[in-house]
Design brief:
homodimer; 241 residues; 10 strands; 27% strand; globular; disordered C terminus; DNA-binding
Chain lengths: 241, 241
DNA sequence: CAGGTTATTGCCTGACAGTCCATAACCTGA
DNA sequence: TCAGGTTATGGACTGTCAGGCAATAACCTG
């Protein structure tokens, strides 16, 4: 059986201290007036990944997606009216400091207050948000949400908006430093007009997704292979202070 | 554009102390002689989930999949020869004690020693195994691998085979009990012929996938709001003996 | 009942998240 | 110049959990 297939994208960005999703408004067709995820039909000689990248570049001016990954494929018979269309959804992340121009029929909407959406697009959006929130906890996906350089406070604001709940600046910074996700640049941010101590600036060490092995519970036992410098001297008594 | 679409399944089971995948051998066609994942073309009026369930029931006698979830969709142009076929892969898990009859052209293969496989099926299999191993750590997916009732040692053997590395029985049991994934049945397993203390038997509390919130790092601050009534019965002191 | 076998429990350690608080480093205005 | 406000940072403390080890429990056979 031959079927139509489309690629869709849940494009997320932290804007105005809130997690928002990029939607565009159907100007005709069966879902006229409701909001839809960007995307469209798969073309002849492209993969799904190429397709969604092309369509995002065409329809909306999002040239600098920091991250793009496949989310899921929906195949419900009635998900589209009139004829059957399979849809493979992607999750895209835009850094908080990017201010790309979008067409007139597109707009950012807070994920906490989604408008009336076409077909199953609201449900797909929820999947994307859930995926982002989960991955913020056990990967370095924050690099895709944050600006290139940021202070601990700025990063806290981004995480708080994305996760949708309070985040401790102290704790966040310590966790990400310990996991070696973020690194101090050595530069300082100028204090605000009200004064205050200047803040140290950080950047993410990598700009590609990387899973924290921290959460490999039931992990393989570490082969105690001491480097050829530190020998049998028990590590429990090696403290010199 | 209209495309062919197929559903495939990575069906995994722990057999003979090793994680194995169910494959069948192409008896004709372009990949004749190599091993393939079970599955086939999407039919007219079915979803992808229905399709893979139907095709598994038809082609191989796996009636009691304990778990089935969507894995990913492959869309490489050259993944199939001659014409373009999109493939959505599923991950299926069979409990270790199920001994279903499979057709003559199908066989179980150790994932640690995969045979020559058709198209991109080897790569899809690796994805499925990786997904299973990850989810064993932060969900209760073990319920799908283990028998309905088991001892700590039996469960350890299943996890060790599935994860592919040593697992401590003590630690495994403690973790799963603390997470309230497994519960003591109260029954005892008879000792083996060599003697030994009889082992307590356990079962999984739920037989549906459930994510351990344990790994929600940067989690929302807990509002210490004890529900009026159910708090004083601390579970740690509820032991009556 | 001695000795072998398997299961279970109880400590101990180290790592980490989460919270609180003291201190540092800047500002403005008197 | 300094007092007081503001923001940032680091240290200390706690509780939870994973991982490892060893002692004990409960069965067997000869």
């Amino acid at each position: 059986m031959l079927t139509k297939h489309e690629a869709l994208a849940v494009v997320l960005q932290v804007r105005d201290a809130a997690l928002q999703v990029l939607l565009w408004q159907h100007d005709r067709g069966p879902a006229m007036g409701s909001w839809a995820l960007p995307g469209g039909p798969l073309a002849d000689r492209e993969t799904l990944g190429q397709s969604i990248a092309r369509q995002l570049a065409e329809k909306v001016d999002v040239r600098h997606l920091a991250h793009l990954e496949q989310l899921e494929t929906r195949s419900d018979l009635e998900r589209a009216p009139r004829e059957r269309v399979l849809a493979t959804a992607y999750l895209g992340i835009v850094p908080a400091d990017e201010r790309s121009v979008i067409p007139a029929d597109a707009a950012w909407h807070q994920v906490a207050a989604l408008p009336a959406m076409a077909f199953d697009h609201a449900s797909i959006t929820v999947s994307g948000v859930r995926r982002l929130r989960a991955k913020l906890c056990y990967t370095n996906l924050g690099f895709a949400l944050a600006p290139k350089v940021f202070t601990a406070s700025e990063l806290q604001a981004v995480y708080q908006a994305a996760l949708g709940h309070d985040v401790s600046t102290t704790n966040l910074k310590r966790i990400l430093v310990r996991r070696q996700q973020i690194i101090e640049t050595g530069t300082l941010s100028p204090p605000g007009r009200a004064g205050g101590r200047p803040a140290a600036q950080y950047r993410f060490r990598a700009r590609e997704i990387d899973v924290t092995d921290q959460f490999a519970v039931l992990r393989p036992p570490v082969d105690r292979v001491p480097s050829p410098g530190d020998d049998e001297v028990s590590t429990t008594t090696a403290r010199s202070d």
